[in-house]
């Protein structure tokens, strides 16, 4: 079948994704408490240009307008995250009514627009009060997360179509506590492994809480950014380097969540840092909960080889694109070297290799038969320009999404049970340590006026959803911009 004619079945779910701190703004409104990202982004030198999420895309005040845009886009589902400090300003205690009201309204507006709400409980904005007690490196944060899940489930109930516990715990643990390039900015490799375990435990406790409140059949998932890494050569030491990365990046989450055990090799590879005594009896049973599906975030691939000489940990290019911290997120992998990947690359410096998504989806399908998959994030940052005709002809983004949807189609053809695709991102937003410099949205946000405009990628994606057909990239430039739909309602 030619890629221009590929069609997707009627039950394939089309969505777009965002996250609370990246779009909401209004960080001091509605009774919201401070999060680690407020603290981190306000600390000089932590984010590009000193950018913060104080205003972000101002989604908090533009929910009505944004849902109207989603409806115009034809989204069937919208993946958003709930800011824990809006619901529990200090991470514990009763629900803050204003926080609940905000998400309740969002969910109701989505349902009224015929869009399924897909809610993530944690996309990195930990209440600062919990970080002050040790953050994810201590067990009490996992326990608090389970309680928070209960509070949210009671508040939003059966209106949410799919729950996700954590988004990309790899980033929370390793970028936050080892590399220090994400909040809370700690550079403690041993502590990052404790964070891995407490994130896993928090996931298990949250699944249990959701099911306690909403019943055993409530759809629950977790979203992982599994790293697709290739060995530079077939030499055993390079194959070994790849296995080491797979273990510390992927298996450390897949193992406990889906198989009920940590891989022996991660315990060995990190034995000089920790004895893993933070894993208590019964934890692994708690972490391994039946899931409705597995969320897969995919952007790029990496290539490694074994470094024979000692070197500074963290030296050399990294596929995560998160700066030049002296500390590596690759805990216990000091003798693994990351090699530059051939282009093309996105504005994040990430290589574009859709085959990596095919390989990942097929591997997951083979390893975990019976567990449906969903691409919960995929998209690209490019330096967009507004053309004299007022449009953003973001042809590279269209091509990126086209080629990755084609990859999803190929994985499905080969048997992978991929149920849907969520484009990252609906809106340009706060790209963490890169501030507003990297634009991932299909809708452009003018950060002076906060006006949203349609990029060609949004127009193209709208047609793809409408026709369920993978239209050629060139079709994007000629599509008409819809009349403004809706107006700010807040
Ligand atoms: O913006 C992030 C998102 O918050 C998590 N996944 C990767 C995206 C692009 O870096």
List keywords for this structure.
single chain, 490 residues, alpha/beta, TIM Barrel, eight-stranded parallel β-barrel, three-stranded mixed sheet, 15 helices, 13 strands, globular, binds 5-hydroxymethyl-3,4-dihydroxypiperidine
Total helices: the number is 15
- The CATH topology name reads TIM Barrel
Which CATH architecture?
A: Alpha-Beta Barrel
Number of domains: 1
**Backbone shape:** globular
Based on DSSP secondary structure assignment, what is the total number of beta strands? Answer: 13
- Structural class call reads alpha/beta
Describe the structure.
The chain is α/β, with parallel strands linked by helices. It has a single domain (13-478), classed as Alpha-Beta Barrel (TIM Barrel). Helix content is 37%, strand content 13%. It contains 15 helices and 13 strands. It has helices at 20-23, 36-41, 63-73, 84-87, 97-112, 128-132, 139-156, 169-179, 189-214, 236-259, 264-269, 283-287, 355-367, 395-413, 456-467, and strands at residues 13-17, 77-81, 116-122, 162-167, 220-224, 228-231, 293-297, 301-306, 336-338, 373-377, 418-424, 443-445, 452-454. The protein has an eight-stranded parallel β-barrel, surrounded by four helices. Helix 8 runs antiparallel to helix 9 (189-214) and helix 9 (189-214) packs parallel to helix 10 (236-259). The longest helix has 26 residues, at 189-214.
